[in-house]
Design a protein that fits this description.
It comes from Photobacterium phosphoreum. This is DUF2492 domain-containing protein. By secondary structure, this protein is an alpha+beta fold. It contains three helices and four strands. The protein is 39% helix and 17% strand. The chain is globular.
């Protein structure tokens, strides 16, 4: 039986925060597919089984990431640390 990997949304937040070149949604998709696979799903403290697009939508709605033009940025003040 094949299991799909689930990564915490913090992995994406940290990835965006720690990069020297800002990610766009397109380049984030490329990175995730290359490093974590095409079937990866995401979870947060509140939600499970999210696609990358659903995770991005959730994180934007919670002001944990923002879009500046096409570039994604992490709002470090809004990240929970547990």
């Amino acid at each position: 039986m094949h299991t799909t990997e689930s990564r915490h949304g913090h992995d994406v937040l940290n990835l965006i925060a720690d990069t020297s070149t800002p990610f766009t949604i397109k380049t984030l998709h490329s990175y995730v597919e290359q490093h974590w696979g095409t079937n990866v799903r995401f979870h947060t403290c509140k939600l499970n089984d999210l696609s990358l697009d659903a995770l991005i939508t959730f994180l934007v709605s919670r002001n944990k990431i923002t879009l500046d033009g096409d570039n994604l940025h992490t709002n470090r003040d809004k990240i929970c640390h547990h």
